[in-house]
Design a protein that fits this description.
The protein is mainly β. The chain is built from no helices and eleven strands. The N and C termini lie far apart (40 Å).
């Protein structure tokens, strides 16, 4: 069983900063990429940022220059971090952790999702 456990999120003032983290654990053979998506009310889910286990990053156009994604591996657990700076009210959304991974050698990779964490940017 694969688990993605998210932490962070909450209420922050415009211009403020916030950090999110997501730890992947369980029966995982290999991870291809981990990342964060977000979904605001009435909007489609969109990519915030993603990172491969080799460190290649991709950022959504609306967050470039304000958000940094990183990944670490300790004690067999992969954790992805999202550092968000200069936050704007339009960054308000539910943020979901994503991991594309295989659970056994030779198996097809699938996307797994966290439960989501609310980020609200408001004065």
């Amino acid at each position: 069983q694969v688990r993605l456990v998210e932490s962070g999120g909450g209420l922050v003032l415009p211009g403020g900063s916030l950090s999110l983290s997501c730890a992947a654990s369980g029966s995982i053979f290999s991870i291809n990429v981990m990342g964060w998506y977000r979904q605001a009310p009435g909007m489609q889910r969109e990519l915030v940022a993603s990172i491969t286990t080799s460190g290649r990053t991709t950022y959504g156009d609306s967050v470039k220059g304000r958000i940094t994604i990183s990944i670490s591996r300790e004690n067999g657990k992969n954790t992805v971090y999202l550092q968000m700076n200069s936050l704007k009210p339009e960054d308000t959304a539910v943020y979901y952790c994503n991991a594309n991974l295989a659970v056994v050698a030779g198996a097809r990779s699938f996307d797994y999702w966290g439960q989501g964490t609310q980020v609200t940017v408001s004065s």
